Amino acid sequence: MSEENIRIQDDLYEAVNGEWLKTAVIPDDRPTTGGFSDLDQDVEKIMMADFAAFAKGEKTTDIPEMKYAISLYKKVLDTERRNREGITPALGFLEKIKSVKTPEDLNDIAAYFTVNDINLPIQLSVQPDMENAEKHSVIVLGPDIILPDTTYYADDNPAGKQLLAVYSDMAAKVLSFTQLSGGEQKKYLEDTLAFDALVAAKVKSQVEWSEYYKCHNPMSVDEVASYVAPFDIKKLLADLYGDKAPDTIIVYDPKAIKEMSGYYSAENFEMYIHWAYVKALIGSTACLSEELASLGRTYRKVLTGVAADPAIEKQAYRVASMTYSEPVGVYYGRTYFGEEAKKDVVDMVKKIIETYKLRVRKNTFLAQSTKEEAVKKLSAIEIKMGYPDSVKEFWSTLVFDEGDSYFEAMQKLSAIRNKEGISRLLKPVDRTEWVMPGHMVNACYNPSSNDITFPAAILQKPFYSLKQSVSENLGGIGAVIGHEISHAFDNNGANFDEHGNLKNWWTEEDFAAFKELTKGMIEQFDGIEFHGGKVNGELVVSENIADNGGMGVTLEIMHTLEKPDFQAYFKNWARVWCMKAKEEYIQLLLASDVHSPAVLRANMSPRNFSEWYDAFDVTKNDKMYIAPEKRISIW
Ligand SMILES: [Zn+2]
């Protein structure tokens, strides 16, 4: 296929991005380039220069918590010390796991495991309660698995076997740095893989996880205790909460918990503890010597097709900016995000919400009462734009000692974070909290708080610019804003009310009609051939509903403009999704990501709208045509 002959009517994505795709090179240390990834690289470049200047004392900031981020940055860069100490900083920690010989030992030390990120037979955390978004609940789920999804464990999945071999090889090499004997190392590794295989047969698949409203399964602690024995969850909760321990918890993955006795029992205990040891060991490598850190990244690199480790300065910036995400995000926002742009985008969001209400009212499949509920939900959406006004107090408690090794510092920090997370159970949900920091190139809708977050870093070209036309901005950030709002009404969000509580606000017939439309959206994508695999329509349905909703509402606004440029709108929409990725990464996303491949996001949604056909005179002879009766419009 020669690029010159590609007509926009046949392939919008290729026609707009073809030239770029021909020459773009994916950096060695990243799985993708283009679109989101380009912006992310730009942000990283500016911020790395700032961090280097901070570290040298050439630059200062008035955000107090930034000094910890800079100090951590320097610890990552102190490779002389890291390489000299090797695995030593982690030995005491690993010995503690090894010393656990019986379920009774584990029950005694389970609170320590919880605080220090060592895998228990169950995962426990504190989250806003889905039924009452003002309070928190303790939630439990099964253990993590090594491969990206349960489907990788199928006998006929060659990728799964290859990846497990890579993981085994990496784990064997890392184990050789420990004080375990050769025989022990072998046994630890065998047990790790055996325990992982047992777990993989029980836990939810990515498709099951994608329906997250189904995670809300309250159960009495007594009932959960009966499934997970000999692990004593009642003792753990008492150790963590004393007389304030809850008697009901939320089970996110009931099958994993109910069938637990089959894989976690006194007989399997050694297998479990060896698995926990190896997981903790590999998790630790990132903060040890450069050799260990690089070894510990092997599996992830193969999984994503990344060839090289990032430069050490990049690693240091990434660790510091992730660990101190809020202060770093506030610094980025205050330094690089203009008030004029903020006001402009907030106005755009408000306009999109108002237009969404109009569309809901015009909607033909909903009864009046359901429409009123939907409008109520739209009116209650809160907007978090750019970055928070201030850094929350918690971040000033996230400290370590000057003399700490990188490993010790990270241990202390994760313990502080975990303890804070645990303590949330006894506090109301803080709705002013931001789930994404200002320097992140992304956006999101949070169903539990019915709010949308647009970090400063995404508010750039091609998504948004004061210098772009209104039509282009609507096809870029406008459609993304509409997308996030649509998550309030996708197959998950539709189950939550305006306060973020899991509650049915639909009439029975309306919900049935909505389900039917959802089915149409699943079918539109299901089975599309892509890079030797097939799109799983169920896995990606919520994001596709959101893409179509975002396009619908922004096209509606286009009609109100004095001089709408629909061609510019669709071209910028395609520009936003331009992406080149390593083949391994494409396969990983296809199997586990709830978003459709970028090229399909660019090319599928337009076909559902008459504006696409009008803008480029698309007819049934063109590849990007679908018959009117097959077009899907939900919102
Ligand atoms: Zn989304």
Largest sheet: 4 strands, mixed
Distance between the termini: 36 Å
**Total count of strands:** 11
* Alpha carbon gyration radius: 25 Å
Structural class: alpha+beta
Query: What's the CATH class of the domain at 87-287, please?
Result: Mainly Alpha
The coarse silhouette is globular
- Would you identify the CATH architecture of the domain at 87-287? Orthogonal Bundle
The number of distinct helices, counting runs of at least 4 residues, comes to: 28
- Helical fraction equals 40-55%
The CATH topology of the domain at 87-287 comes to Neutral endopeptidase, domain 2
Provide the list of bound ligands, each named once.
Answer: zinc ion
How much beta, percentage-wise? 5-15%
**Which residue ranges are poorly predicted, with pLDDT under 50 across at least 5 consecutive positions?**
none
CATH superfamily of the domain at 87-287: Neutral endopeptidase , domain2
pLDDT averaged residue by residue = 95
Strand order in space, largest sheet: 2-3-5-4
